[in-house]
UniProtKB/TrEMBL annotation:
Record has Metal-binding as a keyword: yes
Cited InterPro entries: MoaB/Mog-like_dom_sf (IPR036425), MoaB/Mog_dom (IPR001453), MoCF_biosynth_CS (IPR008284), MoeA-like (IPR038987), MoeA_C_domain_IV (IPR005111), MoeA_C_domain_IV_sf (IPR036688), MoeA_linker/N (IPR005110), MoeA_linker/N_sf (IPR036135)
Reactions catalysed: adenylyl-molybdopterin + molybdate = Mo-molybdopterin + AMP + H(+)
Name listed for the protein in its UniProt record: Molybdopterin molybdenumtransferase
PROSITE patterns: MOCF_BIOSYNTHESIS_2
Keywords: Magnesium, Metal-binding, Molybdenum, Molybdenum cofactor biosynthesis, Transferase
Length: 401
């Protein structure tokens, strides 16, 4: 009987000697969700000049508590003149603080009399003033290599006038579906057939993890054809992912084909769902090799396996620390369960209140019940040979793309 490996060993084997994919330069609007390939250094101070945080009046704090003439009007984008002694300036949000002023009083606290303003007495220096370089100073590292460019990061870059950035190219993935019984939606089902739910599910998950599915291949239950299609898939992909065909049935040809073509580094894991999982490499004719991940055919096993293995693999290829591991949340179990010799990854929904996090499990945790994954936002990790009662503290992996 083949040895069952633990998940830490499988991850170590999967991520050993990973070389990140190459970089490419893209226009900033096209960089959304991509991973920076190099540090970006700030070329400008942010804000670029000291300015007002609100509409009001700029003055010297020492002049507070007096009736001051309004010597100038400063709108955002309008250059400020030095503040005349013993005066204040009408200023608007984002307007440049005039030289000589050191605070701003909001307009609601000021009484206006003709061309003068009556300033309250309790205005400290620096009040409502945003100093030049408060957010970013020229020469600072604005964003570090390995960061994912989401909304705030894109805004940060645009604020520097950046028009293009160096990002890691998306890892190319060939997605293979095995089995004569698996057909695409749109074709009437015959007896014994089922629709391919893994293909769209994994395509979306891989995109969420930063990858690009470059081919989708249906693999029949034929040993020779399985070898041909695996070899073909490896030529144009960084990673070949298959679903099904990695168990021990007579029509499961993926494991044997992988061993014949390349290298099987690990097979069978002590986890539930997802015991029949194959890891290895496939050689390319032009040199080098593609990583191989063989997921089980059951859709829940494929879903869980994608989060546990494909996500960190893409993180390593993209050199993106955020994808290296899922965030772990300690939660109160709102269910009871018992495990056998395999570590169980239960689909749960995390909710939060004043008492902390609560994990509620889907009733049917069978590996064929894909509906258990729709509302799940976490995987509760239940170690082997463990009895969990309601109220026990458990660890949950938060599913974040």
């Amino acid at each position: 009987m083949a040895e069952l490996h633990v998940i830490d060993d499988a991850l170590a084997a999967l991520l050993a000697d990973i070389t990140p994919v190459t970089a490419e330069r893209v226009a900033l609007p096209d960089a959304a969700g991509r991973v920076l390939a190099e540090d970006v250094t700030a070329q400008l101070d942010v804000p670029p000049y000291t300015n007002s945080a609100m509409d009001g009046y700029a003055l010297r704090a020492a002049d507070a508590g007096q009736r001051l003439p309004v010597s100038q009007r400063i709108a955002a984008g309008t250059p400020a003149m030095p503040l005349a002694p013993g005066s204040c300036a009408r200023i608007f949000t984002g307007g440049e603080i005039p030289p000589g002023a050191d605070c701003v009083v909001m307009q609601e606290r000021v009484e206006v009399e003709g061309d003068a303003a009556i300033i309250p007495a309790d205005i400290p220096a620096g009040d409502n003033v945003r100093l030049k370089g408060r957010d970013v100073r020229q020469g600072d590292v604005l964003l570090s290599a390995g960061e994912r460019l989401e909304a705030a990061a894109l805004g940060h870059l645009a604020g520097q006038g950046v028009t293009e950035v160096a990002v890691r190219r998306r890892p190319r993935v060939a997605l293979l579906s095995t089995g004569d019984e698996v057909i695409d939606p749109g074709t009437p089902l015959k007896p014994g057939q089922l629709y391919n739910s893994n293909r769209p599910m994994l395509t979306r998950l891989l995109a969420t993890f930063g990858a690009e599915v470059v081919s989708q291949i249906s693999v029949p239950d034929d040993a020779e054809r399985t070898r041909e299609l695996l070899a073909q898939a490896a030529e144009d992909a960084d990673v070949v992912v298959s679903t099904g065909g990695v168990s021990v049935g007579e029509e499961d040809h993926v494991k044997a084909s992988l061993e014949a073509l390349g290298e099987l580094t690990m097979w069978k894991l002590a986890i539930r769902p997802g015991k029949p999982l194959a890891l290895g490499h496939l050689p390319r004719r032009q040199g080098g090799q593609a990583h191989f991940v063989g997921l089980p055919g059951n859709p829940v096993s494929g879903f869980v396996g994608a989060w546990l293995f494909l996500r960190p693999l893409m993180g390593a290829l993209l050199n993106c620390p955020d994808l290296a591991a899922l965030p772990c949340v300690t939660a109160r179990a709102e269910f009871s369960t018992s495990t056998g010799p395999r570590q169980h990854y239960m689909r749960v929904t995390l909710t939060f209140d004043a008492e902390g996090a609560h994990a509620r499990a889907f009733d049917d945790q069978n590996s064929s019940v894909l509906s258990s994954c729709i509302q799940a936002n976490a995987l509760a990790v239940i170690p082997p040979h463990r009895d969990i009662a309601q109220g026990d503290s458990i660890s949950c992996l938060w599913l974040m793309g």
